[in-house]
Amino acid sequence: FFILKYPECNAPNIRWIGDGECDDNVIYYTKECGWDGGDCTDPIILPLNEPIQVFQGCSVLEPFRIGNGFCDGTPPYFTEECNWDGGDCIPEGYPDCHVPYPEGINDGICFDWSPYNTSACGFDGGDCIAASANLTCSVPRPEYIGNERCDDYFPYNTQECAFDGGDCPIPQEVEGLPGCVVSYPEKLGNGDCDSRLPYNSPECNRDNGDVNKWRDTLIVMLATHPPSAMDIVTTTLPTILMNADTTEVIVLPKTVS
Fold first, then answer.
1. 188 near 208, Cβ under 8 Å?
2. Is the whole model's pTM more than 0.70, yes or no?
């Protein structure tokens, strides 16, 4: 019956044709498919010869395709000006992720390329985290992985180790600090020196200044309390080593003598 009634209709799912619900996208909403088998009785906007402005800077020939629930993953629909097809190409839960095939996010298959395998897209919705963890995670204490406690340092909190087996939040780039990617941005510049990478790195401005504050404190203590300074350092402060030839500061974990 369907083939006889709509012989030129190439819709992939014929059960959607004439099911009582208007599928107003370019596949079903066509003359060949009888405007979705009569479900869309009044054509909303037919393709025109001149683009129609939908948003500021977004003009397309078929405006009804914007925000219709079906991702049109090519320009001019798949553009920032058109809000990535009216939001159709933004996967749920990842507001900064825009991909031409959102169904590929968290589908169990790692799309190991940009923009899917990026922090904005949750590393393909977690698909690439799991794939990497199975192959390349090597740590001195494997029991730390997935123990419900975030070991927020290398090599545990890495993509290869599924960010400590899921114990740590997926790191994000910190606004205002390009290249600084951490799980807990609130730890930067909070007055406490986080001595390990990635916090104590040039990209993260040496824990956003906390490392330098501890260094300056140590310098003052060494200048004002030389006899007991080292005792104070080893018991109450992280050990800070300064290379005299450069301004590089290296902070090691606190030790107790």
1. yes
2. no
Indicate the SS3 state at residue 75.
coil
Q: Provide φ and ψ at 160, rounded to 5°.
A: -60, -30
Residues pairing with 239 in the sheet: 252
Kindly report the CA angle at 73 between 38 and 58, in degrees rounded to 5? Answer: 85
Q: How far is CA 147 from CA 106, 157, 170, 194, in A?
A: 23, 13, 16, 22
Verify cis geometry, omega within 30 degrees of 0, for the bond prior to 198: yes
Which has more confidence, 131 or 200? 200
pLDDT band at 26 (very low <50, low <70, confident <90, very high): low
Which residues, other chains included, contact 50 with Cβ-Cβ below 8 Å and sequence gap of 6+? Answer: 61
- Report DSSP state, residue 240: E
Answer yes or no: are the C-beta atoms of 41 and 58 closer than 8 Å: no
Contacts of range 155-160, beta carbons closer than 8 Å, 24 or more positions apart: 157/183, 159/123, 159/128, 159/129, 159/132, 160/132, 160/133, 160/135, 160/136
